[in-house]
Amino acid sequence: MVLNQTRMKSATQSADWPPLRSATAHLWWLKLSPAEADAALQDILSPAERRRARQLRRPGAASRFCLGRAHLRRILGEYLGAPPESLQFAYTPNGKPYLPEAPRLSFNLAHAGDLGLLAVADGRHVGADVELPGPPARWLAIARRCLPESERRRLQALPEEARARAVQRSWTRQEAFLKASDQASLRRLLRLEMPCAASPGQFTIRDAQGCHWLAQDVARAGAIGALVVEHRPNERLEVLSFAWPGRERL
Ligand SMILES: CC(C)(COP(=O)(O)OP(=O)(O)OC[C@H]1O[C@@H](n2cnc3c(N)ncnc32)[C@H](O)[C@@H]1OP(=O)(O)O)[C@@H](O)C(=O)NCCC(=O)NCCS
After folding, report:
1. E strand or H helix at 120, and its extent?
2. CA-to-CA distance for 6 and 122, rounded, in angstroms?
3. How far is the CA of 107 from the centre of ligand 1 (A)?
């Protein structure tokens, strides 16, 4: 199968599908409610995906995984003008999925409960993370273990009721950065200096290799997430958000 890369560079297959322009990232909020999983979804998954689903033991995990992959395939298939079941994923040594036959179509999926977040961009690395609120004590423990010391100090100065949410925001930024830069196995890098996470925002960061990234905090239905996308200096990058199934612009 050869996907239409030339078409992909500027637009998409179906006329009413949102065009993926070069200085744009698309964010898709996905519904991963297990109740909506049906046999038809299974048909578009690969044998390897179905095998992986069978190994997931936590209640709801298998159907959420299947739904996530099915939505991922359908959305990417729309960008490429290809049937969802024809897409063949490969994985980087760190486990990040990509499409060898459509290398310009960058994407990254994250899930939290019944919510999924998919970042898509044309020819630039992207990463997404999303987390449900959860108990504040869990976030405070994560802050102690994982956040840079400067950020921990700034978060410590916040009123107690705002602290867990800020840690959650900080964590999703760091995870989205690791996922974008495909360094998720290098835990020690989870120490990148970023602006204080007390309030949501959009900002640019420069990593140790001198690469520039745009980071944007996002939120929906009580969950907090982050998108990190490769950014060229002095570039104005637009982030467009949509809900799926459907393609409602948010
Ligand atoms: C890979 C990792 C980022 C996934 O995070 P997660 O919270 O478990 O899961 P998310 O919902 O955010 O993302 C999972 C999706 O990311 C994608 N993914 C998997 N490995 C990836 C990687 N190495 N890089 C980017 N994306 C990856 C997949 O699409 C996966 O979903 P799927 O398999 O259902 O398609 C995480 O396991 C990890 O290694 N984190 C490193 C940071 C860390 O160890 N922190 C602790 C420090 S104290």
Report:
1. strand 115-122
2. 12
3. 13
Residue 181 CA to residue 213 CA, distance in Å, equals: 9
Whether residue 202 is contained in a domain is answered as yes
**In total, how many domains does the chain have?**
1
Dump pLDDT digits (tens) for 122-137.
Answer: 999 999 999 999 899 9
Phi-psi region of 236 (alpha: psi -120 to 50; beta: other; left: phi over 0): beta
Task: Sort strands 90-91 and 97-98 into parallel, antiparallel or unpaired.
Answer: antiparallel
Mean pLDDT of the residues in the chain = 88
CATH code of residue 177: 3.90.470.20
Structural domain boundaries enclosing 58: 22-249
Asked if residue 13 belongs to a domain, the reply is: no
Domain contains 133: yes
Ligand 1, CB within 6 Å, residue ranges: 65, 68-69, 94-97, 108-111, 129, 145-146, 175, 178-179, 182, 184, 187, 190
Read off the pLDDT of residues 55-99 as tens digits, 9 standing for 90 and up: 999 888 898 999 999 999 999 999 999 999 999 999 999 999 999
Which residues, including other chains, have CB under 8 Å from residue 4's CB and lie 6 or more apart?
13, 80, 81
Question: Does residue 28 lie in a domain region?
Answer: yes
